Amino acid sequence: MSSSRTELFRSIKGTFDILPEPSSSDDTLIAGSAAWRFVERKIADVMDRYGVREIRTPILEPTALIARGVGESTDIVTKEMFAFERGDTQYVLRPEVTAPVMRAYLQHHLDQQRSVQKLFYIGPCFRAERPQKGRYRQFHQFGVEYIGSSGVVADAEVIVLMIDIYRALGLSDCRLRLNTLGDESARPAFKDALVDFLRPHASKLSEISVRRLAENPLRILDTKSAEERAILDEGPRLIDFVPVESRERFDRLKDLLGGQGIMFVEDPFLVRGLDYYTETAFELESDLLDGAQNALAGGGRYDLLAREIGAKTAVPAVGFAAGMERLFLALHAASSALQSDAAPELYIVVLGEKAQEWASVTSRALRQAGVRVEVDISGRSAKAQMREANRLGALSVVVVGDDELQSGVARLRDMANAGEIEIRLDAEALKSGVASSLPVVDPEATR
C-alpha cells in the first residue's frame, strides 16, 4: 500500500525509549540512560560483594520452556506471551528469566563447575498485557538465582542481598513479607481445602478469581479485593498443612533474618502460585508505590522447577526477580538523586581550520588519557561555542586559534570560579591543568 505522505513512526504502545535525558512515556517519567547505568552499576556492585556472577540468556526461548516453567494455566502463558513460529519451531520473547536461567544451568552442566551457582541477570522481558503506570509490554528485570543449595542459609542470603540492593540505592524503608509453603506434600491438601472452602462463596468472587478457582486456586490468595480478603480470612491457612520440619525450617529462617536486623511481616496469604515452589516465599514492598502495585521484588524457593523443564531430579534453587521500572518509580517518589551524564572536563573552543585540526589530534590524546573532552564539530562561532560549553556544564574551557597555535600557549578558564591560567598547548600540560582546576570529590560520595 503506497502513500504520498510518509507517516512518522512511533514506538509501539507499551514500550519506551531510554534517552540520554529524562523523558516521559504515557505520563510516566523515564529516567535518562546515565541514571539507568548508575542503577545497574549499583546493583552489580552489591552482587559482586556477595560473589554473585552475571549470566545473560537470549530474549528468544522455546515456547515450551516458558509454558512448562511458568505454568500452562497462568495468565502469562494463556494471555500475555509474545509467541510465534518459524518453520517447525515455536519461539517466545521471554516473559521472565528464572526458567531460562535454569535451562542454561542444566544445558551447560554448571553444577560441574561449582557446587552452588550464584547468578544474577539484568535485561528486558516481554508481556502482552495492558500497559499502565509502571507496567509495559517491554519491561526490564533484574534478579538473582542461587542454584545448588537446599539450605535455609541460602534463602536468608538471597533475601538479605535483595534488601541490600535497595538500601544501596537509598530505599531503606521497605517492608518484607514472608511465608512458608512447606514441602511439596503440603500443597495438594491445602489446595483441596481452599477449593472446598471457596466454592460456596463463588458468587461473591470476581470473574478472575472464579477462573483461578478452577485453574490455579492458590493465585486467589494474591487478590487485592477487600471483600475477597475478608472471605479468605475465614478460610484455611497453609501453615496448618505444613509439616513440622518445614515449620522448623521457617523458624530458622526468621532467626537468621532477625539476627541481621531484618524486620519482616508474616503473611499467610503470600503464596507463589506455581506448583514447583516450595518452602520460602517472600516479597518486598514500598509505600512509595501505589497501594495495589506496591511490590518492588518477590521470590522464593523453587526446587521443583528443574524437573518441570526436563531434569531427571529436582535441583534446589532460590531466588528473586525485580522490576527496574518499579524501582525507578520508587526512586522518583523518594526524590532520590540519580546520576546524569558527566559534564565535560574540558571544552576546546576552536577558531579556524588549523585550530580544528590541532583540536582533533589533541582531544583524542586527552580522551585516551582519560579526560572527558568536547570539541565543536559544527563550525560555530566562538560565542556559540561558549554558550554550548556553558549548556554542557563544562568544567574548563580553552580557546585556540591561529595566535595560540603560533605561540604554543593559551589560557585555560576554570568555569566554576572564572579564574584563568596560562597553559602550554600540548596534551600533557592540558591534562595537568584540567586536573588542577577540577573540584575535589569525596570518594565516599560516589559509592
Name given to the CATH homologous superfamily of the largest domain: Bira Bifunctional Protein, Domain 2
Instruction: Give the helix level as a range of percent.
Output: 25-40%
Give the structural class: alpha+beta
On the 0-100 scale, what is the average pLDDT?
89
Beta-strand percent range: 15-25%
- How many structurally independent domains? 2
Largest sheet: 8 strands, mixed
Total of DSSP H or I helical runs spanning 4+ residues: 15
- Sheet with the most strands: spatial strand order: 3-7-8-13-12-11-9-10
Can you tell me the residue ranges where pLDDT is under 50 for at least 5 consecutive residues?
A: 440-447
Write the topology of this structure:
Layout: E1 23-25, E2 28-30, H1 33-49, E3 53-54, E4 60-62, H2 63-70, H3 75-80, E5 82-86, E6 89-93, H4 98-107, E7 117-126, E8 138-147, H5 152-168, E9 175-180, H6 186-198, H7 207-215, H8 226-233, H9 244-259, E10 265-266, E11 278-285, E12 295-301, H10 305-308, E13 317-323, H11 324-333, E14 346-350, H12 353-368, E15 373-375, H13 382-392, E16 396-400, H14 402-407, E17 409-414, E18 419-424, H15 427-437
Parallel strand pairs: 3-7, 9-10, 14-15, 14-16
Antiparallel strand pairs: 1-2, 4-6, 5-6, 7-8, 8-13, 9-11, 11-12, 12-13, 16-17, 17-18
Helix pairs in contact: 1-5, 2-4, 5-9, 12-15
Characterise the protein shown here.
This protein is an alpha+beta fold and 447 residues long. The chain folds into two domains: 23-185 and 243-333, 2-Layer Sandwich (BirA Bifunctional Protein, domain 2); 346-446, Rossmann fold (3-Layer(aba) Sandwich), CATH 3.40.50. It is 36% helix and 21% strand. The chain contains 15 helices and 18 strands. An eight-stranded mixed beta sheet has the order 3-7-8-13-12-11-9-10, with helices on both faces. A five-stranded mixed beta sheet has the order 15-14-16-17-18, sandwiched between helices. A hairpin with a 2-residue loop joins strand 1 (23-25) and strand 2. Helix 5 packs parallel to helix 9. Residues 440-447 have low confidence and may be disordered.
